[in-house]
From TrEMBL:
Domain of life, per lineage: Eukaryota
UniProt catalytic activity: 5-methyltetrahydropteroyltri-L-glutamate + L-homocysteine = tetrahydropteroyltri-L-glutamate + L-methionine
Annotated L-homocysteine binding sites: I416, G417, S418, D584
This protein's pathway: Amino-acid biosynthesis; L-methionine biosynthesis via de novo pathway; L-methionine from L-homocysteine (MetE route): step 1/1
tRNA-binding in keyword set: no
Function: Catalyzes the transfer of a methyl group from 5-methyltetrahydrofolate to homocysteine resulting in methionine formation.
Domain Cobalamin-independent methionine synthase MetE N-terminal stretches: 55-294
Name of the featured protein: 5-methyltetrahydropteroyltriglutamate--homocysteine S-methyltransferase
SUPFAM superfamilies: UROD/MetE-like
Positions annotated as active site in the UniProt record: H680
The keyword Metal-binding is assigned to this record: yes
Length: 744
């Protein structure tokens, strides 16, 4: 065995699974239709792996037990008319999301979902021997949370003895089906773990040892270095054949491997980046692999990806319009499979000289290309390091100045930015891009859509309006298309959650803003209403974290360049008469390094980048920001340090976890709008339910700083869901205004 892929994108090269899921949810196709699309995609991926000469392919099986049909499964993930969805949060520091398991002392685990075994058999019937991948038992428990009504201090690892018998049943069935390898993903080993948490790994695998007898077992880690104590625990696990490491984001693990890797074990060396789209430097990787070969032995070294390829785009073959030079610098999932195989063959003495030579030429071309470097931009970004770029006046004085100008009621209502993107709207954008309609026709259609959204918000009596973003395909791609240093794909889709896919832009060079990006649409929208209209921008940290970022300079340098471009846009919006400007930093928390020792440096440059964007505006210009779907409690002081006038923040889907920070005494003086309902669910909350949420907020936040808004943008919802939900939201705010007034 010489090569291994940790995981592969599941949506399909042209998002086939996305469209099948949405068709099923809309009742337009059956469960059988959905299963067929998924089966056909799996079959095609397995065949591709097999043809590429990959020894092991690992489809990801996030098995959690329980008799779950599609109806229950999707209700848990999306909610339904009567039950809210389970909490969704980011998978480590990626833009992929997972549903957080809810556990308690009385939980009863059962083995009723045979997905891992059925899909192993499905591949075997096609003549492909795969490696079933299960989320490891300790990581499963560590990423869970106490269920509602269970003490927050409940020790989740106390359930280990209850869950291991289920793992034993799955293992036994996989063995009986003929599996010879099995992979457990234990990525929590890269976190800062306490000794009792590390002991849980030792206990779990000792308990599973007899069940695993006769199987080859991989324990896979990814996304960062494995700390020395965890490395020792991991490599001492009983019954384990091999260990997988991310040697891209965990380069320091190399030192531990060189000094402490156990003899006789397989090393799965993750030298091909699973989280970016740059072609591997094959010569450099080969040097690393040869040094490892000297430590573990030729027959025990397996070339692997650093993590699942789920986090990268699918196949460059679907990008015929991508610039040829830039394309030569890239490798999507399908190309990374080829890279892994080429490295494995080179180690075995069958080096493809032509392939390695072409790769070296592409690496050299990227280093020397004049389109990568802009000296003026580099100079401007370097000059930023001498100041902290704070606004001159403190936030309470600014809020007073803004209130005099805006004259908003208490508990002002707003939405986050986007409104539903209808089929008709997408058609208009598509036809304009394909030059099937003129610019004049396009502008007319978009203005009509904005007018419709403005009128709807006025009819609903929302206080601070948005234009609905009908001209935007994606909150990052839209800006990237108008900035220099960015390239774009036609089909570079990456799954974010459920059927939702994003198409990250590629930052290949220095970033600058050739001309204004949003001023035309924002001023058009403001001319349609007397109410304040928010200018809508995506912040520099989010543009960075939701792009495929160049890997030839530190991330913070690229972020400072983007911040300068957004600063120019903010100041142009202010000059054009826009008095409320929202700079979304939805992904600020997502970029936080997994290890605490690295937090301060990241938060320093990330928060600084945000402040750069708006440090030059007047006190009367209100700066909003928005954050979503992450655990914010541990970075609340950095959020305060961003010095925004108003922050809207996801709250309802995470069971109002955010409010606990304020209960614990954190003082927040700026405006804040914790989301009052979950927009990722089709469920419409009642006025009473929303009023109850607002009351919970009023218990810990001052009345004069609280805003009322949904959790996130409304782009993915239908108008039939949006109208009644917003109606109830406004009604709840008015109800509480009346109650507060009468209480005086």
């Amino acid at each position: 065995m010489a090569s291994h892929i940790v995981g592969y994108p599941r949506m399909g090269p042209k998002r086939e699974l996305k469209f099948a899921l949405e068709s099923f949810w809309d009742g337009k196709s059956s469960a059988e239709d959905l299963e067929k699309v998924a089966t056909d995609l799996r079959s095609s991926i397995w065949k591709q792996m097999s043809d590429a000469g990959i020894g092991i392919f690992s489809p990801r099986y996030n098995w959690t037990g329980g008799e779950i049909g599609f109806s229950t499964y999707f209700s848990m993930a999306r909610g339904n008319a009567s039950v809210p969805a389970m909490e969704m949060t980011k998978w480590f520091d990626t833009n992929y999301h997972f549903i957080v398991p809810e556990l308690g002392p009385d939980v009863k685990f059962s083995y009723a979902s045979h997905k891992a075994v059925n899909e192993y058999k499905e591949a075997k019937a096609l003549g492909v021997d795969t490696v079933p991948v299960l989320i490891g038992p300790v990581t499963y428990l560590l990423l869970s949370k106490p269920a509602k009504g269970v003490e927050k201090t409940f020790p989740l690892l106390s359930l280990l003895d209850k869950i291991l018998p289920i793992y034993k049943e799955v293992i036994a069935e996989l063995k009986a089906a003929g599996a010879s390898w099995i992979q457990f993903d234990e990525p929590t080993l890269v976190l800062d773990l306490e000794s009792h948490q590390l002991e849980a790994f030792t206990k779990a695998y000792a308990e599973l040892q007899s069940s695993l007898s006769g199987l080859n077992v991989i324990v896979e880690t990814y996304f960062a270095d494995v700390p020395a104590p965890a490395f020792k625990t991991l490599t001492s696990l009983t019954g384990v054949t091999g260990f997988g490491f991310d040697l891209i984001r965990g380069a320091q693990t190399l030192d531990l491997i060189k000094s402490e890797f156990p003899s006789g074990k397989y090393l799965f060396a993750g030298v091909v980046d699973g989280r970016n789209i740059w072609a591997n430097d094959l010569d450099a990787s080969l040097v690393t692999l040869k040094s490892l070969e000297g430590i573990v032995g030729k027959d025990k070294l397996v070339v692997s990806t650093s993590c699942s390829l789920l986090h990268t785009a699918v196949d460059l073959v679907n990008e015929p319009k991508l610039d040829t030079e830039i394309k030569s610098w890239l490798a999507f999932a399908a190309q990374k499979v080829v890279e892994v195989n080429a490295l494995a063959k080179a180690l075995a003495g069958q080096k493809d000289e032509a392939f390695f030579s072409a790769n070296a030429a592409a690496q050299a071309s990227r280093k020397s290309s004049p389109r990568v470097t802009n000296e003026a931009v580099q100079k401007a970004a370097a000059a930023l390091k001498g100041s902290d770029h704070r606004r001159a006046t403190n936030v309470s004085a600014r809020l007073d100045a803004q209130q005099k100008k805006l004259n908003l009621p208490i508990l002002p209502t707003t939405t986050i930015g986007s409104f539903p993107q209808t089929i008709e709207l997408r058609r208009v954008r598509r036809e304009y891009k394909a030059k099937k309609i003129s610019e004049e026709e396009y502008i007319k259609s978009i203005k009509e859509e904005i007018n419709k959204v403005v009128k709807l918000q006025e009819d609903l009596d929302i206080d601070v309006l948005v234009h609905g973003e009908p001209e935007r395909n994606d909150m990052v791609e839209y800006f990237g298309e108008q900035l220099s240093g960015f390239a774009f794909t036609a089909n570079g889709w990456v799954q974010s959650y459920g059927s939702r896919c994003v198409k990250p832009p590629i930052i290949y060079g220095d970033v600058s803003r050739p001309k204004p990006m949003t001023v035309f649409w924002s001023t058009a929208a403001q001319s349609m209403t007397k109410r304040p209209m928010k200018g809508m921008l995506t912040g520099p940290v989010t543009i960075l974290n939701w792009s495929f970022v160049r890997n030839d300079q530190p991330r913070f340098e690229t972020c400072y360049q983007i911040a300068l471009a957004i600063k120019e846009e903010v100041e142009d919006l202010e000059k054009a008469g826009i008095t409320v400007i929202q700079i979304d930093e939805a992904a600020l928390r997502e970029g936080l390094p997994l290890r605490k020792a690295e937090h301060a440096f990241y938060l320093d440059w990330a928060v600084h980048s945000f402040r750069i964007t708006n440090c030059g505006v007047q006190d009367t210009t209100q700066i909003h920001t928005h954050m979503c779907y992450s655990n914010f409690n541990d970075i609340i002081h950095s959020i305060i340090n961003m010095d925004a006038d108003v922050i809207t923040i996801e709250n309802s889907r995470s069971d109002e976890k955010l409010l606990s920070v304020f209960r614990e005494g954190v003082k927040y003086g700026a405006g804040i709008g914790p989301g009052v309902y979950d927009i990722h669910s089709p469920r419409i909350p009642s006025t009473e339910e929303i009023a109850d949420r607002i009351n919970k907020m009023l218990a810990v936040l001052e009345t004069n700083i609280l805003w009322v808004n949904p959790d996130c943008g409304l782009k993915t919802r239908k108008y039939t869901e949006v109208k009644p939900a917003l109606e109830n939201m406004v009604a709840a705010a008015k109800l509480l205004r009346t109650q507060l007034a009468s209480a005086k």
